[in-house]
Design a protein that fits this description.
The structure holds 2 protein chains of 2 kinds.
Chain A: E1 2-7, H1 10-22, E2 30-33, H2 51-76, H3 89-115, E3 136-141, H4 147-157, E4 161-165
Antiparallel strand pairs in A: 1-3, 1-4, 2-3
Chain B: H1 10-18, H2 26-52, H3 67-78, H4 80-91, H5 101-123, H6 148-168, H7 171-179, H8 184-194, H9 201-234, H10 246-273, H11 281-312, H12 315-325, H13 330-349, H14 356-383, H15 398-421, H16 434-437
Classes of the chains: A alpha+beta, B mainly alpha.
Chain lengths: 168, 438
């Protein structure tokens, strides 16, 4: 089941998260909903990301693939080069660079879609709270027997209201 | 004095910025219709060119590059407004960027769409454009990857892709909000584009990370794109083109014209959408100072470029230099110097004169001046080739003029449609800054 608590103050939200983490809940069980990004100090609710590594990997892959393709194409149908090499990094460096950047752009975008959960299959049964513009909602996934403890922790931290929701 | 938008209640910000999307006034319809008609006139002119061939233009040996290539360079330059302004300010976490970035990013996408059309228009036989693409074919032919034309293709494809994603990403949270309480067709559109955004911290974290990364990538791409455009010229052994500073010279010119375009657009949307509370004098003052800085840099590069030509005194280069400064192009050259340097220096350099209206006047002057600069780079060199027997002149025909005017109308049209469909200022970005909060 899920419990949803609404918070008006960021400090109250942090206190609730810390209390829940101390009670054994992990970042996977917690989700915050807001109409604007909420930033915390490191260690409160970290969401580790591999986006930078993915962007670099995408860049290297696409750059290498483009260079290999140009090398193949230039050897497949050799143009007259007036004694210059058929393939030269000087002449194809621009294409390598641009395709490297394109790889980084596409990898970043695709990984954003994946990491944000927008295209990944999510728990469709989890309720999504309607958030007031000035508020933040904390959703906690818990077992029915833990619900009272979670309810108490959120109220104690300063939630304006806490709601129990069964699977949507 | 208007309060800083960050201090307004979030609900008020949302209402102010979403309001222009609802309903369309008679003036909006008429303006959109008028610019659409001009854009259609450009398509008709291009259609005539396709029907009767390149003979209907003023292009002839040895001047094969005229208005179309001038426009190509000009529009690619304008496209630097978004990426560079937005990416630099985003990376440096400048708080004043918030109302400016989306307007700038939209300019980039539209200017690139328009600029990217010109090489195709210039091809003449536009329907053979796909020959540029490396696809397996029965003649076993591949494009010549050593050609700067292929460099342009890859650079523009990368830049367009990156810019569209860079514009789209921060639109997602706004579209998710717009999907609620809207007309049915708009709700469907926004819901589809928002990809099921719920506003969870996982989504916000991913978005902010992606935007930071994209800002860095797009910055590197933007600089490379205009450098590559400059190499279209610099890789040719033509007088005054074969210059090692052409890359940075073009990039400086691009940022210069991009900021000018951004100032004009911001002043227009501020006035027409009633966004005086969000686009304050502070924003115009900052952008004006940037424009002034770029004007000085442009003057420095122009001096360096021309002084080395004059000092070198090579006959073929002096022929071009003379044509530009004393000959048939002198009136354009000195007009360019006045518009790009004297006017911004006076209007923006003197603090008392640095008002919103003067910033717009200076920006319009810079846009005209930078178009003339592109013209002066392209045409006089081709009109004065190394072989004196090849000297020629160029005069554009009505076809080229109509196509050119139509591109300006097309930008206005695209912008009008965009501003009616999407908030021109990112609503969610008006969150309190963490440092400010502390």
């Amino acid at each position: 089941m899920h419990l949803i608590g609404e918070f008006r103050e960021k400090e109250a939200l942090i206190a609730a998260i810390q209390a829940l983490k101390a009670g054994g809940f992990g970042p996977r069980d917690l989700a915050i909903f807001s109409e604007e990004p909420v930033e915390f100090r490191r260690g409160i609710l970290d969401r580790p990301s591999h986006m930078s590594q993915i962007a670099v990997s995408g860049a290297i892959l696409m750059g290498a693939a483009a260079t290999a393709f140009v090398y193949y194409a230039q050897h497949d149908y050799k143009l007259t080069t007036g004694g210059m090499p058929v393939f030269s990094f000087w002449a194809t460096g621009v294409i390598t660079y641009e395709m490297t950047m394109l790889g980084a752009v596409l990898a970043t975008f695709c990984w954003f879609l994946w990491e944000s959960g927008l295209i990944r299959r999510r728990d469709k049964t989890a309720p999504i709270p309607e958030v007031n513009p000035a508020a933040m909602c904390l959703r906690v996934r818990c077992l029915p027997e833990q619900a009272d403890g979670v309810h108490e922790a959120m109220y104690h931290a300063g939630a304006t209201w806490v709601d129990r929701r069964e699977q949507a | 004095m208007a309060s800083a938008p960050e201090l307004l209640p979030y609900g008020q910000i949302r209402e102010d910025l979403f309001r222009p999307l609802g309903g369309a006034s008679r003036r909006y319809f008429l303006t959109t219709l008028a610019v659409s008609l001009v854009a259609v006139a450009g398509l008709v002119a291009w259609g005539i060119q396709l029907r009767y061939g390149m003979g209907v233009t003023g292009l002839q040996r040895p001047i094969f590059w005229g208005f179309y290539i001038v426009n190509f360079v000009f529009w690619i330059g304008i496209s630097h407004a978004g990426t560079l302004i937005s990416a630099i300010l985003r990376l440096s976490d400048a708080a004043w960027r918030k109302p400016v970035t989306r307007a700038a990013e939209a300019i980039t996408v539209f200017a690139l769409m328009i600029g990217g059309m010109f090489p195709i228009i210039h091809l003449g036989r536009a329907w053979l454009f796909y020959w540029m693409l490396p696809y397996p074919n029965d003649r076993l032919l591949w494009p010549n990857f050593r050609s700067p034309l292929m460099w342009d293709l890859t650079a523009i494809v990368t830049y367009v892709t990156g810019s569209v994603i860079y514009l789209y990403l921060p639109l997602i949270p706004d579209m998710a909000q717009l999907a609620e309480h809207n007309t049915p067709w708009r709700s469907r559109l926004y819901r589809a584009l928002a990809l099921g955004w719920t506003g969870s911290d996982r989504e916000w974290h991913a978005l902010e990370r992606a935007m930071k990364l994209m800002a860095g990538i797009i910055l590197a791409v933007a600089v490379s794109v205009h450098t590559i455009v400059s190499w279209d010229f610099a890789m040719a052994l033509a007088p005054t083109w074969h210059s090692s500073i052409f890359g940075p010279y073009f990039v400086v010119g691009a940022i210069f014209s991009g900021i000018a375009a951004l100032l004009v657009v911001l002043a227009t949307i501020r006035k027409t959408m009633g966004l005086e509370r969000y686009l304050t004098r502070h924003h115009f003052n900052n952008l004006s100072k940037l424009l002034l800085l770029m004007s000085l840099l442009w003057a420095y590069f122009t001096t360096a470029e021309n002084l080395t030509v004059w000092y070198g005194n090579a006959p073929d280069e002096m022929a071009v230099f003379g044509a530009r400064t004393r000959g048939p192009y002198a009136v354009y050259f000195w007009t360019m110097v006045i518009l790009n340097f004297v006017v911004p220096f006076v209007l923006l350099g003197i603090r008392r004169l640095r008002t919103v209206s003067n910033a717009v006047i200076a920006s319009v002057c810079v846009l005209i001046g930078m178009w003339l600069e592109r013209y002066l780079i392209v045409v006089p060199t081709l009109a004065n080739p190394r072989m004196p027997s090849g000297f020629s002149t160029y005069a554009p025909t009505w076809i080229e003029i109509v196509v050119t005017v139509a591109t300006f109308a097309a930008l206005v049209m695209l912008y009008l449609i965009f501003a009616k469909l999407f908030p021109i200022i990112a609503v969610w970005e008006f969150k309190p800054h963490p440092e400010e909060e502390d």
